[in-house]
Amino acid sequence: MAKQPMLKFVQVERDMPEKRTAHVRTEDFDEIYQEFAAVKAEEQSSRCSQCGVPYCQSHCPLHNNIPDWLRLTATGRLEEAYATSQATNTFPEICGRICPQDRLCEGNCVIEQSGHGTVTIGAVEKYITDTAWEKGWVKANAPLAERSESVGIIGAGPGGLAAADMLRKAGVQVTVYDRYDRAGGLLTYGIPGFKLEKDVVMRRNQLLADGGVTFVMNCNIGEDIAFEEIRAKHDAVIIATGVYKSRDLDMPGSGATGIVKAIDFLTVANKASNFGDSIAEFEDGTLNADGKKVVVIGGGDTAMDCVRTSIRQGATSVKCLYRRDRANMPGSQRETQNAEEEGVVFEWLSAPKAFTDTDGKVSGVMVQKMRLGQPDASGRQAPELIEGADYLEEADLVIKALGFSPEDLPTLWNQPELPVTRWGTIKAQHLTGATEMDGVYAVGDIVRGASLVVWAIKDGRDCAEAILEKFNAKGAVAAE
Fold this sequence. Notes:
It is a single chain. This protein is α/β, with parallel strands linked by helices. It folds into three domains: 22-135, Alpha-helical ferredoxin (Fumarate Reductase Iron-sulfur Protein, Chain B, domain 2, Orthogonal Bundle); 150-243 and 406-479, FAD/NAD(P)-binding domain, CATH 3.50.50.60; 246-404, FAD/NAD(P)-binding domain (3-Layer(bba) Sandwich), CATH 3.50.50. 36% of the residues lie in helices and 16% in strands. It is built from 19 helices and 16 strands. It has helices spanning 22-25, 38-45, 55-58, 66-74, 78-88, 92-98, 110-113, 121-135, 158-169, 186-189, 198-210, 227-233, 262-274, 280-283, 301-313, 333-341, 409-412, 445-448, 453-479, and strands at 150-154, 173-177, 214-216, 236-239, 245-246, 259-261, 293-297, 317-321, 345-347, 350-358, 361-375, 381-385, 391-394, 397-400, 404-405, 440-442. Helix 5 crosses helix 8 (121-135). The longest helix is centred in the last third of the chain and has 27 residues, at 453-479. Residues 151-460 form the FAD/NAD(P)-binding domain. This is Glutamate synthase (NADPH) small subunit. Residues 26-136 form the Dihydroprymidine dehydrogenase domain. Keywords: 4Fe-4S, Iron, Iron-sulfur, Metal-binding, Oxidoreductase.
């Protein structure tokens, strides 16, 4: 009888790729996890129970065929595993690195619920695709036939690029417009290299370009080209700009220098440390934590990116203020643990009240202590002020990581009829991304608000499918 390749979760314990020690990894911006070896990847994949109702798949926004590619990996059929993974996910090697698996696939693994420890889905997904790149299995799109239809995509982030990939595979002519000098959006400039090394993103960008996607970079809509001009040039337009307007703090002392936005800090850090660009704000210390006492305000994944970047830049101390406790923070628990290992100090139940300065330069944060009271509208316990428990936290650099909201696109683009919600996000149909403007679609964070990369990828793929259906329907009518 053939040996059973799966269902080994009872005999084989969960095991993650080895993590570089904190004192080593904080010396650079390289990813912190080592690669799985082939034997280890097969072993961990073999722990999958191949359950009848795969909750890992149903809780993945892309509904990736996880049990299938785990079985293929366990049996050494890696090229098939890659093809299965790529069939539902435009960027599996990116999702394997940055998805919060603990809240999605792995967090809903059946064997995890039974106490055996989840399958290491994310690490295997990363291994499969990295191997595919090494072996030359990843190819540029080669549509069977070119189509005459053209789509313009505004925004080269994960949602826009996922749509570009799907449309180009079908032979559609695709042009992507973006304000930055490199494609990738937050994958390139928002997420630090120690979570997502930039060559991983750049090779995907190059693959799209090799497949015939046209990129127009350093292009600001409303300044370098009008939105109406883009509409006139293309049969359909997808808005995939993301949300980049930083939420702010309006309190005494907030105008002092040395109080900066997370997106500015991370963008400059990525340009300087990962691409070697010469950036004035980095070199003059404005957006550089080297030798400074750093305080980061916020508890999400962006805050975790800021504290861990500050450590690597040589900050003398890094503290993170969050108004709730550890159990209620929105960021990944895995990232919090990594940050603590690297020397970050978390001040839970702490919120800023004001900033102090010396000659206009920030010198500290007046912190007020909180306690958790009754649940708010979201169901989480609301923080309440503890009177008389304020204290001063010294700081040379304060980074505000309070989340993001949409820019005012109707005004920026001179498109008052562009339909938006009361939050400023674009109104678009569920699944298709279609807006009330003919031929205009929207996907990702500009529709959802700040969300996960995997949701943006799903939106981009769904939208591309809807556009192709519309093009095909028009073609069928014309043929009649």
